[in-house]
Amino acid sequence: VVRSTAVFTAVNLGLGGMISAMCSWLRLSGLEPSGQGLEPLTLIVFGLIAGLISLLYSRFGRAKEREVAVTVKLPDGGKRLRLLSDSGDLLCEPISGKPVVVVKPSALGIDELTPENVPEPLRMSLRAIPCESVAGKRLIYGFAAVLVTDRREIEAVVAPVGSDFGGYDGIIPETLL
Fold it and tell me: Is a pLDDT exceeding 90 seen at residue 140?
């Protein structure tokens, strides 16, 4: 809640600041009707311009892929993974509500999980995760795990899924970082 409130406040201050700057420019240039204030249509246009600037900044300011190095703690040791952070990854395990990190099974040294082929050390932490993607709806399986980044330890669900992640070992939700 605190992080969302801070982001909401910052965005609104930024948009309001851009609109205020455009209004000041209009007054200084002498184009504002004297004594009447601004028309609502002018404020709407300024709002649209400020929104477009904000959208373009967020689109191109974060265009660079963000790679995250993570170690997944497993009963038989840890596996080091190169993950791509994704702000659109909102997949959560429905019972605990923990975010899901989707990884290549080969990066963990296991097969894609099904109830029949779960390795014994992971059997007690098996989680069923309904998901929907461009490939369609399906049920994937994961396990509760602790991820270690350079900053902290994170509790999440790791789901080994056979997929291509553009050269990365998987995808981590940006909300975990």
Answer: yes
